[in-house]
Amino acid sequence: LAKDIKNEVKSDISKWVEKGNRNPNLTVVLVGEDPASATYVKNKISACKKVGIQSDTITKDPSITQDELLNLLDKLNKDNAVDGVLVQLPLPDHIDERTICNAVAPEKDVDGFHISNVGRLCLDQPCLLPATPAGIWEMLKRTGIETFAKTAVVCGRSKNVGMPIAMLLHTDHRHERAGGDATVTQTHRYTPKEQLKMFTKSADIVVVAAGIPNLITADMVKEGACIIDVGINRVKDEATGKFKLVGDVDFDGVKQVAGHITPVPGGVGPMTVAMLCKNTLMAAQKKIAY
Amino acid sequence: LAKDIKNEVKSDISKWVEKGNRNPNLTVVLVGEDPASATYVKNKISACKKVGIQSDTITKDPSITQDELLNLLDKLNKDNAVDGVLVQLPLPDHIDERTICNAVAPEKDVDGFHISNVGRLCLDQPCLLPATPAGIWEMLKRTGIETFAKTAVVCGRSKNVGMPIAMLLHTDHRHERAGGDATVTQTHRYTPKEQLKMFTKSADIVVVAAGIPNLITADMVKEGACIIDVGINRVKDEATGKFKLVGDVDFDGVKQVAGHITPVPGGVGPMTVAMLCKNTLMAAQKKIAY
């Protein structure tokens, strides 16, 4: 699916350029030298290049002040050669992430973190959606998973994944920004394990974004349910002693019961990157009227 | 509780005025001659006066254009003698309500409908909260209803009641705008009745804002649960042939099972008006940094 989306974006960009437009531009701002952040940025840039998005990375020393960063964003907001602006999180402690997210122009905010995009999402209006929930949504729609009048559980209430996907799933399909019309239960760190199981056991769709390996096991899942694993956890493999990436779901156990399940790595991750490409094209084409 | 809140607001306003400030001002804009809207506005103004809020109502002919209304709001936004601005909904069809809600300055938006206030609510930031969910929240807190790690069902997904109360109930108590840490299920018109019952039957708290008389009956409620009825429905009394106001809950039946229950009329309604007064004082004191 991620490949399909990237191919569609690539084809749309070709047509866009044939019409006399320049290639979309994504400018990524990376503060500091966190190796995980550097890897994420590298993957995003690489995917963008493949579909015809021209990408720049501006790397800043972690000593940059908040005002300097705000000035940089102001310049990028005003730069007509820049369509999408992405500030890789996390930022150093002396910089307020919310202030920075709100300083990216909403129409260039390909991460969907600006308060206007959050407000629009929650009011069922067209918006730039955060790439991870957008990717989950696309996955459900393109696989033909029914959400209408179904039950869904979203484990995790983060503002970039749990909250937005719960919002997409429960809202009205007839609204401007269409929703899934599912009955949605949102669980979190304080949901007792027995309660969590009670909800997941009867759910048609379970989206897990908790950051807890093996949170969801086979005994917690309804036969035929759709299980979407957003977790990325680095754990030691007991057999080999090496580190490996796992999700929040016991994949081998749950796949015996579930109707659909996403792997980690290779599931939601590639969809997220594909949706970032799609968001950048949307920003370049000014698809949303702000 | 509504009286308590109004008395607190009255006392706070006295202190505020003793310090040399003028009384808070709420300006209500009423378009057209809908009798229900006129009654609501009258009740709001009357409550405001009693606590020391100076209130003006600007009544406009339904033929007012959107631009004329926007100009009026612009003037009110710039007027330092006005602390709170409330545009009574609904508006005539030729006026876009979302455009109008976004045209009230966020710091004067005592209805909490501006996209910035919606975004802040959903990001767990301090904000002017819509008065109805704010009233429900105060009711829970002041009654000592535990929400932490409890289960709650919110019936209805409207943007002024269902969505905000679900947001308040499920979010983190340690965040800037504190939440209730409940596990929350949001149901709506497409939730099958059997599913609804499954969820309400095991819920510690049920908030009903669906606009459907007798949606919640005794067999759907857990022993000792807290039931909050936001519905206001005008129905014909079979016995007398007269019209009366009822909520969404079968009050007489459910009160036998519930631990707490709110009546209609007289429950959430007065709390809503009290919270509007509180919001106006907050706006006057500029309690929230926008």
UniProtKB/TrEMBL annotation, chains A, B:
It holds the Pfam family THF_DHG_CYH_C. The keyword Protein transport does not apply. GO terms for cellular component: mitochondrial matrix; mitochondrion. Its cofactor is Mg(2+). It catalyses: (6R)-5,10-methenyltetrahydrofolate + H2O = (6R)-10-formyltetrahydrofolate + H(+); (6R)-5,10-methylene-5,6,7,8-tetrahydrofolate + NAD(+) = (6R)-5,10-methenyltetrahydrofolate + NADH. It is found in: Mitochondrion. Its main location: mitochondrion. Keywords: Hydrolase, Magnesium, Mitochondrion, Multifunctional enzyme, NAD, One-carbon metabolism, Oxidoreductase. GO terms for biological process: carboxylic acid metabolic process; tetrahydrofolate interconversion. Residues 1-111 form the Tetrahydrofolate dehydrogenase/cyclohydrolase catalytic domain. Residues 130-287 form the Tetrahydrofolate dehydrogenase/cyclohydrolase NAD(P)-binding domain. GO terms for molecular function: methenyltetrahydrofolate cyclohydrolase activity; methylenetetrahydrofolate dehydrogenase (NAD+) activity; methylenetetrahydrofolate dehydrogenase (NADP+) activity. Belongs to the tetrahydrofolate dehydrogenase/cyclohydrolase family. HAMAP family: THF_DHG_CYH (MF_01576). This is Uncharacterized protein. It comes from Ciona intestinalis (Transparent sea squirt).
